[in-house]
Specification:
single chain, two-stranded antiparallel ribbon
Length: 187
Amino acid sequence: MARRKEYIEEEVIEKAMHVFWRNGYETTSMQMLEKEMGINKFSIYSSFGSKNGLFLESVKCYKKKLNKLIGILKSSTKGIEGLKDYFKDFIIFSKDNEIGRGCLITNTANEVCERTDEDIKKVLGTFTNEVRDVFKSVLAQDKTKDESTLEAQADYLLIAMIGLSSASKLFNSVQLDHYIEHVFKNV
């Protein structure tokens, strides 16, 4: 007879997400996950198959949280100002006490190398493309922009967002506001 789980899966996934978000995928050890999640390695492997499987579930959890901000952006009719608000809201979203954690996806992307699992690479690529598509759709509110301009500006904003998420771990709010203001002078 199979043992009954002594934990709520959604809760332990969220705890794992925070460990990966703070420490990165590569640096996060099974011991760190066991401690934070409050379950043993056997239970982690039994429920998620591997560290990769747990990470992929953590990304789904992260996306649900970030989708609240993305949903606000999608429904915005403020165009560039809506995008700027999204960038500022992201800084608040990424805070961990006084220090930003950046973006779980960006933090992981900074670790990508030849030996990175293909499923993880695929999830990272899919996620960033989804965000880029939202940026492009908001930019398209300006009917004077042609397709090539929309493509270029969506790429620019995606890369700027990646820079912002990395910078949020080091720079203060005044510096980050300056960065955001200058990003949008170029759009």
